[in-house]
Amino acid sequence: MPYKTNYFKVNKETWNKKVPLHAQSEMYALEAFMSGKSSLMPYELKAIGPVNGMSLLHLQCHFGQDTLSWSRMGAKAVGIDFSEEGIKLAKQLNNTLGLDAQFVCCNVLDVSKHIEQSFDIVFTSYGVIGWIPDLKPWAKMIAERLHPGGFFYMVEFHPILWMFDYDSGRPEMKYHYSQEEVIYSEYQGTYANKTSKMKSKEYGWNHGLSEVVNALIEAGLKINYLNEYDESPYDVFPGLEKTKSGMYKMKEQLFPMLFEIKATKIS
């Protein structure tokens, strides 16, 4: 649908500007990553397990740290993102590290136009589906890119978190749990560099759990599990406290912060 083009264009411009800021941020810890530290978190490591010799497609990879972390573990990894600056940096990191990951610059909904290969694993994580207006073509693409018997895994911020507006620094419940209308945000800084003077302009969409699950089922995938968790590995929402596990949660935890889904392509 043509109307999406302008939304994606604005979002891409913002993400292109985020890349150099994020590459220098404490959150992305690029120096430690280049020295061998994995960027992957316990949820995805536990769920996906050993990947040596397996083919893996990483959707919305930003500048490729997780893709490269899977590659370090022996996966034949391909990362995609719509940000030209993100993919440019990902390729530079891959070359510097001497890895064999591949990177493709394209919109996540257009992956099958750019990649014909099928994979053992399709992976996506943390702050990804909110950039997609309609999850049905997204799920269809995932099914197209999986081998029979291959699986899709996602770990994502819980949709309840996106019911709030955080622009004022204090959460204000403002949006529907599964809002069809686009949400526009304009604010200074980014989640990884809050003091930056960069102005972020973003269009996003809220997707409830039933929408995510049903899109994957309709695409022909079998849901293995859906889990919800109270802790997040990232301190990207106001008022979070660090726990003994090294993760973050709210002072008064009344709803989950994350969910994960694993789904298999049967045929």
From TrEMBL:
Residues 58-153 form the Methyltransferase type domain. The keyword Methyltransferase applies. GO terms for biological process: methylation. InterPro entries: Methyltransf_11 (IPR013216), SAM-dependent_MTases_sf (IPR029063). SUPFAM superfamilies: S-adenosyl-L-methionine-dependent methyltransferases. One of its GO terms (molecular function) is S-adenosylmethionine-dependent methyltransferase activity. It comes from the Bacteria. Keywords: Methyltransferase, Transferase. It holds the Pfam family Methyltransf_11. This is SAM-dependent methyltransferase. It comes from Winogradskyella aurantia.
